[in-house]
Design brief:
Elements lengths: L1 H9 L16 H11 L21 H6 L6 H14 L5
């Protein structure tokens, strides 16, 4: 996200508001992805979905040259960080 902020700051053609959202995924799909990547961790059995009729896009940032990391890479890095901090065992 910091890279996106710097990109908007440095590009003279940047104007207006920007959405920095690389992935739109439902809670259910996210939990399923976590289950497939980390089957030995606890996963909720019931999931309450909210209103997920979003229309978010980072199209403006992409046009400026921004790119985002794959979701799987972000998840792996997050889990590793949580493990190192003792939040997850």
């Amino acid at each position: 996200m910091a890279e996106a902020l710097l990109l908007v700051y440095e590009k003279p053609e940047a104007e207006g508001r920007y959405i920095c959202s690389s992935h739109t995924i439902t809670v259910q799909d996210f939990v399923e992805k976590l289950k497939s990547m980390y089957p030995n961790y606890y996963h909720p059995k019931q999931i309450a979905e909210g209103d997920e009729d979003w229309d978010l896009t980072s199209e403006k940032l992409l046009k400026l040259g921004w790119s985002y990391r794959p979701l799987e890479e972000t998840i792996v890095d997050s889990i590793k960080d949580y493990q190192e901090k003792g939040i997850m065992q």
